[in-house]
Amino acid sequence: MQHAYDLHTHTVHSDGTTQPEDNVSLAKEIGLAGLALTDHDTVSGWTPMRAACARHGLVFIPGIELSTERDGRSVHLLGYWVDPQDAALTDECDRLRNERSRRAEDICVRLDALGVGVDVARVRAFAGGAPIGRPHIASAMIEAGHVPDIQTAFDDYLADGGPAYVPKYAVDPVRGLRLLTAAGGVAVLAHPGVSEDGGSPVTADLLDELAAAGLAGVEVDHPAHEPDVAGRWRGLAAAHDLLVTGGSDFHGERKDLRVGERTTTADTLERLQALADSRMHDTISVTPTAL
Ligand code: AMP
Ligand code: ZN
Ligand code: FE
Ligand code: FE
Hints:
Blueprint: E1 4-6, H1 20-29, E2 34-37, H2 46-56, E3 59-70, E4 73-80, H3 87-113, H4 120-127, H5 134-143, H6 150-158, H7 173-182, E5 186-189, H8 204-212, E6 217-221, H9 227-239, E7 243-246, E8 264-265, H10 266-281
Parallel strand pairs: 1-2, 2-3, 5-6, 6-7
Antiparallel strand pairs: 1-8, 3-4, 4-5
Helix pairs in contact: 1-2, 4-5, 5-6
The chain binds adenosine monophosphate, zinc ion and fe (iii) ion (FE) (2 copies).
């Protein structure tokens, strides 16, 4: 695995269970050249991961995974090299985090009514200040002895449309993309072939819209993509002149995935970075075809 980069990892700064330093050590162990931190709706883990990468001689790619939604289906966007001080992006992330917090309380009310109540304070403790996601609620349910594992918590209560499910506030994918690019970043469509309710949340029309709005790439290589799904998206990416990236979506113990399980080539990383560099000097959106 020569000069491979994992462009999708999470930590305790969102709903992963590891520290940024741990992800870096794991990447180093398997010989990756670098890795990205793409926590949900926050950049709070960048500083420690940047420092750990510097210590280990790995390339650090600062990122964020923005949860957007179209027609009730979740569409995730990965943004790399965004300006962490960008006011519009940080405002939106603050709002996303606040709304997640309120929603967690609503879910807890539902769980209570279903006879499997958990203390909101325990949910917050599991999140540890990170944007609260359903996996944190699942952890509190396990601790309270209501379910044996995360999957049961989702299957019986928390999954989309489940008895305790409450939708979360989200921005439209095109607006999310514009926030990322206006903040000087490049945007990549995350795991487009899978949604939490099965099937793909990304229609052909939405892909066209995103491509026209300056999408840089598609995360074709993702552990949840079966080979046929990856193949289909590889074709769609090529047809739209979009770069093909890969990442593990590592979440520590919360998902059975390893850092480096899917990776991105050095060539693709360079192209992504060139796009980001051009955006820093020119706020007019640049599409990959202009490379
Ligand atoms: P949230 O951001 O609170 O909507 O939670 C989304 C996260 O919950 C996803 O990143 C998955 O890790 C997890 N998740 C969502 N649906 C399921 C499911 N049906 N089974 C297992 N995990 C799920
Ligand atoms: Zn996650
Ligand atoms: Fe995601
Ligand atoms: Fe992710």
